[in-house]
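Hi L., both proteins are below.
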Amino acid sequence: MFIGRRRRRWWLVVVAVLVVMAAVLGYGYAETYWIQIKEYSFASPDLPREFDGTRVVFVADIHRGPFFSEDRVRSLTEQVNSLAPDLVVLGGDYVYADLSYLDSCLDGLRGLDAPLGVYAVLGNHDYGQHGDGKYGPAPAIEAFELSNVSLLHNRAVWIEREAARLRIGGCSDYQQGTPLYTPTLEGAEARDFVLLISHNPDFAESLPMDEVDLMLSGHTHGGQVTLFGLLAFHLPSDYGQKYRTGLVTNDKTTVIVSNGVGTSGFLPIRLFARPQIVVVTLHAAANLQPE
């Protein structure tokens, strides 16, 4: 009888553990659909007053694939447009591991609408077979040339409004490519506002001091699976938890790191690292009123 009772206790423990695991996995899966609109205000004396109040909507790490359908990409596009962006920025990793999903992802993003344009960079997954960059950036670059999104692959442009301008540039992936900041800084003066897009936030450590006003990045997924949002168990960064998520200032620039919207790994789950659409409202510092 004693042995029978002990067995029943063990069965109860096993059942309890399985229930907890199922609950955690169920919540983690549901969280992947719970998109957060994360808003920031960024003020700079370099921003011309003509751009004061400009809304930059930033989306990263879509990871179109088996767990992120083209319908979800279209829904994401509608959600971005509903935020009335002046400028849309895409931060790379449009697919998960398989480039065959890229065309359908770009088709889903075709409806993005912003008066100042839609600009993008590539992420490490966009170089082909993940881990070795087997195909290089060429197939992705070709796909973007057929889309309505302007790819800034180690390239930059001026965005103009009335008589004013700002500089926006992008670089190749920090892991799979050779990222360059010099094209973004070319022709820019100290008084110009410079916005850089880098899929990987670690590139911020390589920038020259005080040349880039703001950098937008993704890649880290906010840790994707975290300890109550405080600590990531795994983070693809050489700088520990520094660039996990949010606004980070180093001695070179300011970086805003998005959690992204998709997932990577064999299970599509997030734990206390909700997917994000980032909205950055730019302000000319002279136009800010003290609180």
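That was the first. Here is the second:
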Amino acid sequence: MSKVNANDSNTFAGLRVAAFEARMAGPLAGLIRKQGGQPVEAPALREVPLGGNPVIDDFTDRLLAGGFDVVVFETGVGVRYLAGAIESRISRDAWLAALAGVQVVARGPKPASALRELKVRIDLQVPEPNTWRETLAVLDAHLPVEGKRVVVQEYGQPSVELMDGLQQRGAIVTSLPVYRWALPEDLGPVRRAIAEICDGAIGAVLFTSAQQVVHVLQVAADDGREADLRSALASRAVVGSIGPTTSECLRAHGLPVDVEPEHPKMGPLVAAVAAGWRGVGKAAESRPSE
């Protein structure tokens, strides 16, 4: 394996970079390569649609009956899973006609893109970094929710802060779970990546969601290497976080955040870590020998 090239100061220059992204693992690996890194793909989660979900059936019935005022879509994959589940019962035209009668909020570009694929009107789009804080702020500024019936499409787990914030503002809130997060069926790649991080063979790690943090620590603990992993992330491997929510999770679990990009997207994350890993002062020796 190639060593880091000290003369290439604005790229990974051969550094081995672990990425825990699943759905976009290939594109993320490509971005790492473009920045001169050696990607180590280690998907740390999978999205499992909630089949036969009575909550979705109830949402559909109430939507058709005019039972909601605002729908907040949290994720693009959630929009697509929801559409698929609804359209197993009724036509797309029927439920989209009902959706046209409510205010539609998209938490950032991914749900917005999925909604546009369906030709859904978007009334509000939450600005970066697209957290529950920005969601509440944009609603306060443009669509006060007091007394309104608000549905929140979950993103793998309940958004407790958002739900609490809406209820505190007087909204009548309904949670809409569409899918759940689970560990990958094949844990081999993430286990190998954890072992290599612990052994100093990986110089940087990229977390692109908070749930990846939880799962990586869970797998490390199951393998008896949690303490080793924590030590390596604290002292040897540069930790890149895609944005505030993931950074909050890392810090809540006692892990460092060495680099966070200005914009919470994969491209800016890779570019920021590639440009800044040397300045962190951790990864210079964290690479395998040739």
